């Protein structure tokens, strides 16, 4: 506009500042605001509040206080929205004293806190573990005729669930429903997550049923939480039922859903002793390999972007089940899909290939790790050394050990025992 010789007016500046703030370009918005002042234009209350909100979102507490004071100096009385915005910023930065001072300054100036202001205060108290004081604030609100809203109740539910006080959180849910406020799916999901973490899976399933009866719709996050808990409790068939139910309800699974089914149900389920579940044995007894591959095909067909975690889980299962060729294909598919294998993915593949009696191929894979900007770590070195020993490549194992130590890594107990056994059996001296 300036280049064309057109002078912007207050409306132009205000529109640009709002647009920049909406796009999170706060620095540019503040610069334009300062330019507006320099050119003698007087911003209105909306512009001040917009810039103030933007500055607070960046966590710049000093800047927020400065703009609040600037408003007062220029004859604009900050309203409850402006004060609440700055209070939220101060509390989030842990500046409790400054926040309390500003809160009482607001009251002294005759500006009454609203439900948003009180909810911000309650949230700060809950995060400090001061639940009883937060409850006192609710009492003060109610006396002033301000009713807690869904956000206020949500703060208490979230806090109590994080503390493991699930029964108390359920009481809060009942209280808000008596007030005619229906909990949203986020609150229910929080409650379900807490119930599951406390081993109350059947209660969590009941809550899911309750949500639907009340007309609300559980979302993919809700179902993911429930399926994860069911799988971790070895209730794989129940998790599969939930998976089928969500598809029937038109809720499309996401990558987390599939990872949960693959990782928890098939691969990483822990035994009572705490050891990792024997994938190969589980597959052979339960015939789940076809299901796992069907899940993979289902994900491809649905257009979901598979992540490295998913591929790694499936590759690990295939290697342990002795399906090394399929594992190799999936490993190659990683690069085709634009993904990079992690150190852990490489470890799994190297171990799997060595178990198939292909140490040379495994070593080529080991040496290629740098091509993917994924340098071998201690685990990878140890796995490769185990592979060499397993295939009677003792001299190569010794060479790799020397290289490993030279790079600052140490042989683990299993590797050390392999070398000790070799020394005792062959009489050769190898320095570990």
TrEMBL record:
PPR repeats lie at residues 9-43, 44-78, 79-113, 114-148, 149-183, 184-218, 219-253, 307-341, 342-376, 377-411. InterPro entries: PPR/CCM1_RNA-binding, PPR_rpt, TPR-like_helical_dom_sf. It holds the Pfam family PPR_2. Transmembrane segments: none annotated. Keywords: Repeat. Coiled coil: none annotated. NCBIfam families: PPR. PANTHER family: PENTATRICOPEPTIDE REPEAT DOMAIN CONTAINING PROTEIN-RELATED, TETRATRICOPEPTIDE REPEAT (TPR)-LIKE SUPERFAMILY PROTEIN-RELATED. This is Pentatricopeptide repeat-containing protein.
């Amino acid at each position: 506009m300036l280049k064309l010789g057109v002078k912007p007016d207050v409306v132009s500046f205000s529109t640009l500042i709002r647009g920049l703030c909406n796009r999170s370009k706060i620095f540019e918005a503040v610069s334009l605001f300062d330019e507006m002042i320099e050119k003698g234009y007087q911003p209105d209350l909306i512009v001040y509040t917009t810039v103030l909100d933007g500055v607070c979102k960046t966590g710049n507490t000093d800047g927020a206080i400065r703009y609040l004071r600037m408003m007062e100096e220029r004859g604009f009385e900050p309203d409850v929205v402006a004060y609440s915005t700055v209070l939220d910023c101060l509390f989030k930065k842990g500046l409790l004293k400054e926040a309390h001072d500003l809160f009482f300054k607001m009251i002294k100036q005759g500006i009454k806190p609203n439900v948003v202001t009180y909810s911000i205060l309650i949230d700060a108290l809950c995060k400090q573990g001061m639940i009883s004081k937060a409850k006192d604030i609710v009492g003060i609100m109610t006396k002033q005729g301000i009713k807690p809203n869904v956000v206020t109740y949500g703060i208490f539910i979230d806090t109590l669930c994080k503390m493991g006080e699930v029964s108390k959180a359920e009481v809060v849910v009942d209280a808000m429903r008596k007030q005619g406020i229906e909990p949203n799916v986020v609150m229910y999901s929080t409650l379900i997550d807490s119930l599951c973490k406390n081993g109350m899976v059947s209660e969590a399933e009941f809550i899911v049923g309750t949500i639907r009866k009340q007309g609300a719709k559980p979302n993919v996050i809700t179902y993911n939480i429930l399926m994860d808990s069911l799988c971790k409790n070895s209730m794989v068939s129940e998790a599969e039922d939930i998976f089928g139910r969500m598809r029937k309800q038109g809720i499309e699974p996401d990558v987390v859903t599939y990872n949960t089914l693959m990782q928890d149900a098939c691969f990483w389920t822990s035994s009572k002793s705490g050891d990792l579940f024997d994938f190969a044995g589980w597959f052979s007894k339960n015939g789940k390999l076809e299901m796992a591959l069907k899940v993979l095909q289902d994900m491809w067909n649905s257009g979901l972007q598979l992540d490295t975690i998913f591929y790694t889980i499936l590759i690990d299962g295939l290697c342990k089940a002795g399906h090394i060729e399929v594992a190799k294909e999936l490993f190659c598919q990683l690069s085709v899909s634009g993904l990079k294998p992690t150190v852990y993915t490489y470890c799994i593949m190297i171990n799997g290939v060595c178990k198939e009696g292909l140490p040379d191929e495994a070593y080529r894979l080991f040496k290629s790790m740098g091509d993917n900007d994924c340098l071998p770590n201690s685990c990878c070195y140890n796995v490769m050394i185990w592979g060499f020993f397993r295939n009677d490549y003792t001299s190569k194992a010794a060479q790799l050990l020397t290289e490993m130590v030279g790079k600052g890594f140490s042989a683990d107990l299993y590797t050390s025992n392999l070398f000790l056994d070799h020394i005792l059996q062959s009489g050769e001296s190898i320095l570990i």
